[in-house]
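pasting for the record
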Amino acid sequence: MKIEEIKSRILEEILKTEKQIVAYEELTKPIAPNDAIGRVSRMDAINNKSVNDASLRQAKSKLASLNRIHEKFDSDDFGLCLKCKQPIPVERIVIRPESLHCVNCAR
């Protein structure tokens, strides 16, 4: 896979993650106590909110990693593991473009 294809894949992933963050932010808005949704439904809504909060945190973390990689596009560090400085396999970058470490260092 060419470097341009990898860059394109990372940019697509950034856009997708930004859209996910917007959707999660909408889902994690507080539930007004005066909304008449019933006690059980309110408990479900609160539970769903906590799950969506966790997904939002994960998406923001992924976006931060993707942005770090995006900043490295034109540097010599692009595609290198932050820990061991060895090349990250292209397959890993394609599958998990937010990866900052090789498989061995990510363990």
